[in-house]
Amino acid sequence: MGRSNTRSFLKNTILAGISLPELAVIGEFLEPFVLKERTVLQEPKRRLDHVYFIESGLVSQRIVAGGSILETAVIGHRGAVGASFLLGGHLATRQSVVLFPGSAHRIRVEDLRRVMRERPEIRDHLLRYVQALNLHCAQTGLCGVRHDCEKRLASWLCLASDALDADVLPVTHDYLSSVLGLRRAGVTETLIRFEEQSLIRKARGVLQIEERLALEHKACSCYRLISAAYASTESVNSIVELTG
Fold first, then answer.
1. Per-residue pLDDT tens for 129-159?
2. What is the pLDDT of residues 186-196, one digit of tens each?
3. Domain of residue 188, residue span
4. Which H/E stretch holds residue 53?
5. Is residue 224 situated within a structural domain?
6. Do residue 55 and residue 162 come from a single domain?
7. Which single residue of 38, 110, 177, 200 could bond 184 by disulfide (Cβ 3.0 to 4.6 Å)?
8. The whole model's pTM is what?
């Protein structure tokens, strides 16, 4: 049995990229968890009890300050909530909230830390993901300063679609305006243009991506950098699988 066998029952890319013997070790501590909309998985300045490996759904990671929020990353089936906490520190610095409902496997922080000490391969595997997530957060900050509404919206839609592994996004104009720090009128005008160009189709509370490649061309370079960072962690895992 090899790593490909794990993909038959695991949707989370991180867990599916772990070899079967290592997965057996970490699997003893994993438990299923239902992600309900608006559930807060992580609060700033509070200890994190669990790390959540997302199977389906979407989690918004954001900074909360002065009554305002700024989203730094969206986390879906390719990621884990709380993984950055394993690099050090005792308190979370960001809030993580379930945006779209789904499911996850969760593990207690102390159990995962013990597994990482005993299994360096698992530790290295997680660290590659954390590096990609950190780039995602940093690039999001830069994007908010340098790029216009159209590029940022296109990037967010593509990133959310990748994380959710779906082209239908249950998201509103108000939400996009809030987490991206954009005027609601600007968001609405941009989405209307996207629809007129047949890139998306809107319904009440739902947005469907119709022309994915064309939408990617509208996105800024931040999308390609972030996407490549996550893809690189998966390609490393594929190389290890072929040579291991």
1. 999 999 999 999 888 888 999 999 999 999 9
2. 999 999 999 99
3. 148-219
4. strand 50-65
5. no
6. no
7. 177
8. 0.89
